[in-house]
Design a protein that fits this description.
The chain is α+β, with helices and mostly antiparallel strands. It is built from three helices and five strands, in the order H-H-E-E-E-E-E-H. It is about 50% helix and about 15% strand. Keywords: Membrane, Transmembrane, Transmembrane helix.
């Protein structure tokens, strides 16, 4: 297919209708918005996710803690993805003070067991370790791709709906013109 055939809507042509010109501009706008908008949304989202994961790695630290009570075995926290249970622990904060709190620990541990917990720069417990560098890159890329799709899909959907509306208009115009010209060609069959 030659360039002139692909760009027929842009050329001056006695068969070109207003809907054809609108469709040509609309297709250009849809592709531009989908590509540029999707790329920008994807890059911004991936960058924000990378920044968040980097901040986690910077401000979360593993410390050793002592379990203060037996952790129940076989009873997991409802929201724990890896089957851990809530247990009271004591640890030393960055300022040297001894602190106590509750965090997720493996079930079945006895009081006095040593566990690894995660704390922030202020010595507060956080429930999960920071996202690793490789995992963070993958998750940021997936978030970026999802954001790009979240922009592109509605744009393409709006473009498809507009093209369908333009097609209905073209068919209605053709029906009107055929009603004017058809009787001049003789009786209809069928």
């Amino acid at each position: 297919m030659g360039t002139t055939q692909r760009l027929w809507r842009w050329r001056s042509n006695p068969l070109r209708r207003r809907e054809d010109v609108v469709e040509a501009w609309m297709v250009l706008v849809v592709w531009t918005l989908a590509l540029v908008g999707g790329a920008l949304a994807g890059l911004v989202t991936a960058g924000a996710a990378e920044d968040q994961y980097t901040e986690q790695r910077t401000h979360r630290h593993a410390v050793r803690a002592v379990l203060l009570a037996d952790a129940p075995h076989g009873v997991t926290a409802d929201w724990s993805p890896d089957g851990r249970v809530q247990g009271p622990v004591r640890w030393t904060a960055p300022d040297g003070a001894s602190r106590t709190g509750h965090t997720l620990v493996a079930g079945g541990l006895r009081a006095g067991a040593r566990v690894t917990v995660w704390q922030d720069d202020r010595g507060r417990l956080v429930l999960s370790p920071p996202t690793g560098r490789a995992e963070g890159h993958v998750e940021a890329a997936l978030f970026g791709a999802a954001a790009a799709l979240a922009v592109a899909v509605p744009v393409f959907g709006a473009g498809a709906a507009t093209r369908a509306w333009l097609d209905r208009r073209r068919l209605a115009h053709w029906d009107q013109e055929w009603d004017l010209v058809g009787p001049q060609w003789g009786p209809r069959t069928g």
